[in-house]
Amino acid sequence: MASIAATIEPFGPRPRPFFTPTRIIIYGIIIVAALYYMLPLYVMITTSLKGLPEIRVGNIFAPPLEVTFEPWVKAWTSACTGLTCNGLAPGFWNSVKITLPSTIVSVFVAAVSGYALVNWRFKGSEFFFTCLLLGSFIPYQVMLYPMVMITAQLKIFGTLWAVILVHTVFGMPILTLLFRNYFASLPQELFKAARVDGAGFWRIFFQIMAPMSLPIFAVAIILQVTGIWNDFLFGVVFAGTQNYPMTVQLNNIVNSAQGVREYNVNMAATILTAAVPLIVYFVSGKWFVRGIAAGAVKG
Asked: Mean of the pLDDT values across residues 63-70?
């Protein structure tokens, strides 16, 4: 039996070596890109954990000799963000109050609009869709002054409601385009079968279309949350000095010209400001990729 087994020739494709030239190039590029993007984050984290005497030594790449969380506490509670020294905490809650309603309203309206443009065509729907496309590519700065006048006429300029309105309006065109393209990729037989069974507009949307569209909802939420949370322009223009979001307060901390420049506090404040978009992306990143691959950019 041993002699027979020895005479049997192996069959199938020959195993490929792991370290091929192509793999070496690909993994080399990935490693270099990862280091390029991770190195600033490493410097920010290590600097935020150092005291000022250690920072003055000048070796920004060295790990902290003595870890301290005092810069984080100061950035959150007592860093000066202008005339007040209450840290980033008020700006955090202002950003939450802006982000939640802006995201919910804009995503819901865009989902319903995209669903209607695909499955419930009406007279002038193509013209409406063209206007949305144009609105997706108009720079925000062009519409800044008209929106200032509109919010002033509505008596909400300088309040959080003005920022919520602006983010909701400017977020809907691109989100409507995403939802419209996604719903267009779904089988039309499902919609037709529901219509035959007597289902109406809202029943089809909530019971059929919405449950099948969780990936594109994740894409829209990620885009809105990151875009609204990271926004500086609308916050500094429309919010008013008492309602500045976190990004505006971060700018005031980093660019403060009074006293000693505390780089550790600045780094801690920057990480705190960026924490929410990072958490949102890491928690729902797989849905983002799935939504894009499933038809979010098709049309």
From this structure: 88
